[in-house]
Amino acid sequence: MEGKRRMTWEDIVQMPEKEMPELIDGRPYVRATHRLRHGYCMTRLGGALDQGYNGASSAWWILAEPDVRLTPHRIVRPDLAGWRKDRMPDLTDNWPIDLRPDWACEIASPTNSHYDRGVKSKVYREAGIPWYWLVDPQERTVEVLELVGDTWRYHGGYTDGDALALPPFDEVVLTMGELFGPLPKGWPGT
């Protein structure tokens, strides 16, 4: 971006709402509209985690598509993000949120998988986000990455048939197949 001014949040809020991009190093990234399976998976996973941590004494806030300012020129919108309540005791109305999440989750679609695995993975790592999940509704997988030092450590990959608590959510058992919905007609096993 040599010679060009890098964008900030102030530039984003001047744009029409339907065009609001993420910013990576001051450069706008606009993602395609979610497909149905992507939205279904995001709703199911967010709901399962939120229900698992329901109540005033729970340990987490789970939010869908929050705008998070990691730096003035890095503003991201994870599909799902979580904050430990000991770091963010109350829900804030600040927009964007200026506190990095403790967990970020991206739900891949055919048009953004490379972005989530490449650019977003790097940005989240550099921001010090301790946990990153990559969920792929097409492949029906959940990959769990943990930040160790300045490197992602692959914690595990999970799929249909698995029912377990995944870090950092040790109190919530997730049934993987339920996150992805029924298998489409014509897929192997249907």
Q: What's the layout of helices and strands?
A:
Elements (H helix, E strand, L loop, with lengths): L8 H4 L9 E3 L2 E3 L6 H17 L7 E5 L3 E4 L2 E3 L3 E5 L18 E5 L5 H15 L3 E6 L4 E8 L2 E9 L3 E3 L7 E3 H5 L10
Parallel strand pairs: 7-8
Antiparallel strand pairs: 1-2, 3-6, 4-5, 6-7, 8-9, 9-10, 11-12
Structure, described:
The chain contains 4 helices and 12 strands; from the N terminus they run αββαβββββαβββββα. It has helices at 9-12, 36-52, 113-127, 176-180, and strands at residues 22-24, 27-29, 60-64, 68-71, 74-76, 80-84, 103-107, 131-136, 141-148, 151-159, 163-165, 173-175. The protein is α+β, with helices and mostly antiparallel strands and 190 residues long. The protein has a 6-stranded mixed beta sheet, with helices on both faces. A hairpin with a 2-residue loop joins strand 1 and strand 2. The mean pLDDT is 81. The chain has a single domain, classed as tt1808, chain A.
